[in-house]
Design a protein that fits this description.
By secondary structure, the chain is mostly helical. The chain folds into two domains: 138 residues, no CATH class; 90 residues, no CATH class. The protein has 13 helices and no strands. The chain is globular, with a radius of gyration of 21 Å.
């Protein structure tokens, strides 16, 4: 990956080549987004915008030809997050901006993927009816609830990909020009108290909307999840506990996902008010 970052930073032609080819290839659009973010972080908005235009050409083709807005949404969203990080040097503000970007992407997906989602729901309903008839049972699919659930999942995945792409770009930049820079920034990531209060209020309101909560709650939980992961990394690093503890954490997250995510959300919310890392003694 370092070699790829070095290729992007060699010049405009090399950066454009990486951005265009990666955006053309299925499931590699995040590399194109990371390349755009790297140039934006290192050289500024003007250079980043020039590369963004190149990356949007194949992404636009995907959106027009197969009605898949994913590359377009992720590349555009990552570019905005990269600008935010460059101008504010704050990962907390990047997480704040990620939510409205994710919400806009969700509305766009709802419009562009409407027929696709309807077809998936139709086929699933047909499958369930056939399965129920064979078992002499009745089944009723709540299509609107399923639609909201699918939109919520797609929204969260797209927003995560934007965040992962800008994090990858920042790690590339740190590896090339500022060793361990990204690690130090990530280890101290902590959400401001005001933002946590806004998230709590928004989550409560969203929960009261019942069906809509399936679409928006996963997105609202993302900043806490990312901040919770940063809390784990920062706390373990402060105690110099080594990578084996991180491996154990991700192992637990893989096999006990919902429980670990719940703990991360609560830990990140509490950390906003009490600053847990400041209370952890540094290992001598």
């Amino acid at each position: 990956m370092r070699a790829l970052a070095e290729l992007v930073m060699k010049g405009r032609k090399q950066a454009a080549f990486v951005a265009v080819v990666a955006a053309l290839l299925p499931l590699l659009y995040w590399v194109s987004a990371a390349a755009v973010a790297l140039v934006t972080l290192r050289k500024g908005r003007s250079e980043g915008t020039g590369l963004l235009i190149w990356a949007l050409l194949p992404a636009g083709v995907w959106a027009y030809s197969v009605s898949d807005p994913t590359p377009l949404a992720v590349i555009l969203g990552t570019y905005v997050l990269a600008i935010t990080l460059r101008e504010t040097v704050s990962w907390a503000k990047v997480l704040m901006i990620a939510l409205p970007i994710g919400a806009i992407a969700s509305v766009g997906m709802d419009m562009m993927l409407s027929s696709y989602l309807d077809e998936v729901i139709k086929q699933l309903d047909k499958f369930l009816v056939q399965s129920a008839s064979q078992a002499n049972q009745e089944v009723k699919l709540d299509k609107e609830q399923l639609r909201q659930l699918m939109l919520g999942g797609l929204t969260s995945v797209h927003t995560v990909m934007m965040l992962v792409s800008v994090m990858l770009a920042r790690s590339w930049q740190a590896g090339l020009y500022n060793p361990s820079g990204f690690q130090r920034e990530f280890h101290v990531l902590r959400l401001p108290q005001l933002y946590t209060g806004v998230l709590i209020a928004a989550s409560f309101i969203c929960y009261q909307l019942e069906l809509e909560s399936l679409r928006w709650l996963p997105l609202l939980l993302l900043p806490w999840i990312i901040a919770g992961i940063a809390l784990i990394h920062g706390s373990l690093a402060k105690r110099d506990l080594g990578r084996s503890w991180l491996v154990a954490f991700y192992f637990a997250a893989f096999f006990m996902g919902p429980y670990v995510i719940t703990l991360l959300v609560f830990a990140a919310a509490i950390d906003s008010f009490v600053d847990i890392r400041s209370r952890i003694p540094v290992k001598n």
